[in-house]
Predict the structure.
Amino acid sequence: MRIETPREFERFGAMLVYGLQKIYQLDGGLAGVAASPQNGDRVIQQIPYEQLHEIEKQMAIIVPVRNERLKLVQGVLCGIPNPCLTIVISNSQRTPIDRFAIEQDSIANFSRFLQNDIVVIHQKDPLLGNAFAKGGYPEIIDDSNRVRDGKAEGMIAGIMLAKLAGKKYVGFIDSDNYFPGAVLEYIHEFAAGFATSKSKNTMVRIAWHSKPKVLESGLYFAKWGRASTHTNRVLNDLLSHYSGFETEIMKTGNAGEHALSVDLAMQMCFASGYAVETQQIIALMERFGGVIGDLDARIIRDRVEVYQIESRNPHLHEVKGDDHVDDMIQSSLSVIYHSALTPERIKTDILETLRSKGTVGPRQEPPQQQTYPPLARIKLRSFKAALKKHDRLNTLLGA
Ligand code: GDP
Ligand code: CO
């Protein structure tokens, strides 16, 4: 891969946010043939093929699924590079039709062609719920001892499985992507971000180059979604508030496609629902920013680096109606609204935005989003012991 060196960054305490990086070549060649003039001036970095491969070997890819079409899921699985460990967390229906059983069969069959084990687990698997209970993390389970609904909850379960499998990195890829080639690209970009990072606490977020839409009789390649426009504007405003310099650095406030070093993932507080991606940025700012509480020497040494990479493939996923764009704006902005970091001026701006959309009434405040405590609190040994009985997790737990 040949990727632009970030031209700018913003520092917020011990958190570094790098500017958007463009991709110049998806396959940048082998290490041995790296000696091109471009590597000398470092405007463009070559991340050799071997290095991507080494990182992908240490990466788990979590694919959250809820009642998606099997053809789409299969396309996504086909795009995941061979060295990665694939973990499918499904919350698909079990009655009246057991869609999960059909998924499981189809994925098992597919993985025979790949000669790769794909881990498939249902979010409501009683053993999974029990593992969280035994590990001392009851917040994520409901009255019947099962993991709660939601993509974020599926992501959390996925992170724990990646941790048990001994992986160093964890990436998330939605299962409703139409282009297997885009999936492959995102994962190489995750690896490229980790390859350039100097910190063990790293996050890589993908900004889509474009999102094709049918407009009249042609295709139109839109650059920014409606939700991201709002989220990015407010996040940038928040960064600018503290630095005193206006910035537009943040471009990935709602990035569903992202990856984290497992060490960092274990320290994060995840929000439920659509708030999860924005909450990650806010959580990092709260923890590493030094505005709330003091920055101890360890945090300064273990600074966090956030990379934002612009993918080349257009992003096309299943159309699920526009209704939830407003939901997404509301949950993303609510997270920012309720952060102790956010000054009155920005809170007023958020209220105006949400009230003008009619999602928050004139005298209402946006609802507080539920957030989960850091996963580092989970007693790993008890969590793992509770999953030992699972007959489909042998390879993962044996690792
Ligand atoms: P959007 O892409 O933001 O519009 O949201 P989607 O509805 O496409 O959801 C993103 C991904 O999460 C898709 O792959 C869904 O199948 C998956 N997903 C949605 N809800 C759940 C859930 O409750 N559990 C799990 N495991 N996955 C979910
Ligand atoms: Co989607």
In short: Residues 174, 176, 317-318 surround cobalt (II) ion (ligand 2) (CB under 6 Å).
